[in-house]
């Protein structure tokens, strides 16, 4: 077991003094960064600023107990902490403020996140994992309040898993599970449901987690008393306080933000509970000040009275820290010892200002240099075109008059020049065009890379291995195929685990995990509470620490509870860190083609639109689903796999190579050849489309049926366009609402694949009604496309073109 801060504090007075002065210096540097950062925004050199002034002391104390291998999932005001653990420098702080797109200068997000959003890089350039136990780790921040909390649960639970689970390479992620996950959150954000759901789950699971609540008495301008049932969050949480002898609940510690010795003690105790007993701890830091207000977008003088502002000035943490240092004295061997004099502290203050100013200047010069070099490479080429069009000189003059220039201004000049010289065939224009293509590729990488994995393990690189069947292959229920495939997975990949509502003891509601908990244990096949947001969060956090979690959301309808985390966190992990972090979690769910408002929704369009960055896989049966699990466990992309809810009791032939066969992402399957019309569908609707296609054959219409299989990515080789080229008609059939997934599929086929060129009839979509199915019998039939609907509407396409051969039905 690792030692804790409490157990390592036998130090000399000189070392004690040095630590105090180093903390004071770091606090002053952080404060000067906040001051200068605000000025940079107000003078127009940066767009927006949100800073950590007022929180310096508690973050310095927290940093003292933060060790290599530990993780933080935090709040966008933790700049002092990031400085203290060497995850931030003055230069990188200002590079982020200016939105510098250089990974080297702004390693947290390469300009993709506003300032105050910190991250360390967990991955090497090739996408492989670094040794996370050899560094202090910050999982990439997000802006939505409390959105960082669900992920925190998974980061903490990973330590508990690693106490028992070992696999090849696991030493890169944990040292015997002794790591702590630290969370930070603003006091007002504890009114969010994600906070309560996370803390509740942590208290039930007993994971090593420390949550710091920075309590400054306001949520932007709204006072705490209007945020929650009780102004004091510690009082509200008193029922969570663990009782002696019980393995539930958490420890709650309240401490003042300006009391340096008390803060050191509070975090030392918090670490001791979390690291040695695997107990969640809440550190409620009260009387926090916010010297510059909420952000550069508002002034706190608008909502704080003079008395409050005066108190904040008096109880500013750095002011009180300075007082404490100057008042401290101790007698050692008959000699009075002090920490520092006024003059010494003044010298530190001046040194901090100088360091920050120099760092800011360096960051600004580097940022400007990027734009200058871009312009330097382009302007001479634009100048060469002046003789070919008189407007170009006007464009150059407009550009030169700009006081502050950005990359977009350079690109605007180039594009206007190319537009003005369209139709001109000259070497000068060709040179500019070549340069434009070159710089565009650079900026495309700067602003648009890494939405999905770009490593050798990306899902698109996983090759297809077809299911193998023999005379001995049995016809079994679909649930048996998926169950037996999971059995192979858990044996093959010891880092894989699954958890969800009813997933453990009873083997999930459809018995797809039957017997797995008994065989692989409660850690790897686990039941959870009814709390979808933190089921997803468990998956994200564990995946960030090298595990391969399968987070089960019992029904597709319930995925709405965790859609915020999917959209704001999971889908953006690789993008917002420009390939610095990844979380290859698999979300397992099931849905489609049932009756009842709450168990038959098909919110696929919402998932597609809100979760770009996550693979969306829609297998038509359980064998296909099993193949997708096998594929994604070889990949480092996250995915949601939607199993067919009505397929668990349908018979399928069980492959002989369970755990090995794969279904490639982004590849369609033609399940019925045809020559007259192309029918495109996915999931449970496929069975009904096949029925309709067979009926259409009897009516003289030869339909080609295509199972999309993978919505994201979608038909990478454009095979659907080839089908439409043959049949000249296209029908998209979907159980989502009108204009939902069918609109996405149409856009992909008609626009991206340019299949509109081959159509002899208008493209047709057959979708569900705009309401969910009633629970009444036949609700599915009257709410979602039936075989009758499909036959009649597709037949009508042919009636339009040849009414004699295909007389009207109605």
UniProtKB/TrEMBL annotation:
Pfam families: E1_dh, Transket_pyr, Transketolase_C. Residues 476-650 form the Transketolase-like pyrimidine-binding domain. Keywords: Oxidoreductase, Thiamine pyrophosphate. InterPro entries: DH_E1, THDP-binding, Transketo_C/PFOR_II, Transketolase-like_Pyr-bd, Transketolase_C. Its cofactor is thiamine diphosphate. It comes from the Bacteria. PANTHER family: PYRUVATE DEHYDROGENASE E1 COMPONENT BETA SUBUNIT, PYRUVATE DEHYDROGENASE E1 COMPONENT SUBUNIT BETA. E1 component of the 2-oxoglutarate dehydrogenase (OGDH) complex which catalyzes the decarboxylation of 2-oxoglutarate, the first step in the conversion of 2-oxoglutarate to succinyl-CoA and CO(2). This is Thiamine pyrophosphate-dependent enzyme. It comes from Chryseobacterium luquanense. The lineage of its organism: Bacteria, Pseudomonadati, Bacteroidota, Flavobacteriia, Flavobacteriales.
């Amino acid at each position: 077991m690792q030692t804790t801060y409490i157990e390592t504090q036998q130090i000399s007075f000189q070392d004690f003094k040095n630590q105090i002065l180093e903390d004071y210096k770091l606090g002053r540097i952080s404060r000067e960064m906040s001051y200068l950062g605000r000025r940079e925004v107000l003078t127009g050199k940066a767009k927006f600023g949100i800073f950590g002034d007022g929180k310096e002391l508690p973050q310095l104390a927290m940093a003292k107990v933060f060790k290599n291998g530990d993780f933080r999932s935090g709040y966008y005001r933790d700049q002092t902490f990031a400085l203290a653990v060497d995850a931030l420098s003055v230069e990188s702080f200002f590079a982020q403020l200016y939105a510098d797109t250089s990974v080297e200068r702004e390693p947290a997000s390469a300009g993709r996140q506003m300032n105050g959003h910190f991250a360390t890089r967990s991955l090497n350039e090739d996408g492989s994992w670094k040794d996370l136990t050899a560094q202090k780790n910050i999982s990439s921040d997000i802006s939505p309040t409390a959105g960082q909390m669900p992920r925190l649960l998974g980061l903490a639970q990973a330590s508990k898993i690693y106490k028992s689970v070992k696999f090849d390479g696991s030493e890169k992620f944990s040292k015997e599970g002794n790591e702590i996950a630290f969370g930070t959150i603003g006091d007002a954000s504890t009114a969010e449901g994600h906070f309560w759901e996370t803390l509740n789950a942590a208290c039930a699971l007993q994971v090593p987690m420390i949550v710091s609540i920075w309590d400054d008495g306001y949520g932007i301008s709204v006072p705490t008393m209007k945020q929650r049932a009780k102004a004091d969050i510690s009082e509200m949480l008193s029922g969570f306080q663990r009782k002696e002898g019980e393995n539930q609940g958490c420890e709650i510690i309240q401490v003042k933000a300006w009391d340096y010795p008390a803060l050191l003690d509070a975090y030392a105790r918090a670490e001791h509970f979390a690291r040695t007993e695997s107990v969640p701890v809440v550190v409620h830091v009260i009387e926090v000040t916010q010297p510059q207000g909420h952000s550069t977008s508002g002034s706190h003088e608008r909502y704080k009275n003079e008395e409050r502002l005066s108190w904040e000035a008096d109880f500013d943490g750095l002011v009180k820290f300075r007082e404490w240092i100057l008042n401290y004295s101790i007698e050692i061997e008959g000699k009075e010892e002090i920490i520092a004099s006024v003059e010494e502290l003044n010298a530190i203050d001046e040194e901090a200002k100088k360091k920050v100013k120099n760092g800011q200047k360096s960051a600004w010069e580097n940022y400007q240099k990027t734009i200058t070099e871009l312009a330097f490479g382009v302007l001479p080429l634009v100048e060469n075109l002046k003789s070919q069009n008189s407007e170009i000189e006007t464009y150059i003059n407009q550009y030169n008059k700009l006081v502050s220039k950005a990359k977009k201004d350079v690109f605007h000049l180039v594009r206007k020049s190319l537009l003005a010289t369209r139709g001109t065939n000259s070497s000068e224009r060709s040179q500019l065009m070549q340069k434009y293509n070159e710089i565009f590729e650079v900026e495309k990488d700067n602003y648009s890379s890494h939405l999905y994995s770009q490593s050798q393990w990306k899902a698109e690189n996983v090759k297809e291995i077809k299911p193998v069947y023999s005379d001995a292959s049995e016809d079994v229920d679909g649930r048996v195929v998926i169950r037996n495939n999971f059995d192979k997975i858990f044996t093959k990949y010891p880092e894989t685990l699954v958890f969800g509502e009813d997933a453990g003891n009873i083997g999930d509601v459809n018995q797809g995990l039957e017997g797995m908990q008994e065989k692989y244990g409660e850690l790897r096949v686990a039941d959870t509470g009814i709390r979808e947001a933190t089921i997803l969060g468990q998956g994200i956090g564990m995946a960030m620490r090298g595990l391969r979690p399968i987070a089960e959301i019992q029904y597709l309808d319930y995925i709405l509870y965790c859609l915020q985390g999917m959209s704001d966190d999971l889908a953006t992990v690789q993008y917002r860190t420009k390939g610095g972090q990844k979380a290859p979690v698999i979300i397992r769910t099931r849905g489609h083609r049932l009756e009842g408002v709450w168990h038959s929704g098909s919110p696929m369009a919402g998932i597609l639109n809100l979760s770009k960055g996550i693979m969306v896989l829609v297998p038509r049966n359980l064998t296909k689903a099993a193949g997708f699990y096998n594929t994604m466990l070889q990949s480092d992309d996250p995915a949601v796999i939607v199993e067919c809810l009505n397929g668990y009791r349908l018979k399928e032939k069980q492959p002989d190579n369970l755990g090995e066969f794969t279904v490639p992402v982004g590849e369609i399957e033609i399940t019925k050849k045809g020559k007259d019309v192309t029918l495109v569908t996915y999931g449970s609707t496929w069975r009904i489309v096949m029925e309709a296609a067979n009926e259409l054959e009897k009516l003289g219409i030869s339909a080609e049926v295509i199972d999309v299989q993978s919505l994201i990515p979608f038909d990478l080789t454009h095979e659907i366009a080839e089908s439409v080229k043959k049949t000249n008609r296209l029908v998209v059939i979907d159980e989502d609402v009108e204009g939902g997934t069918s609109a996405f599929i149409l856009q992909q086929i008609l626009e991206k694949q340019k299949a509109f060129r081959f159509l002899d009839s208008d493209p047709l979509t057959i979708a569900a009604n705009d309401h969910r199915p009633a629970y009444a019998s036949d609700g599915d039939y009257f709410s979602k496309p039936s075989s009758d609907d499909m036959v009649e509407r597709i037949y009508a396409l042919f009636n339009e073109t040849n009414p004699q051969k295909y007389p009207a039905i109605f």
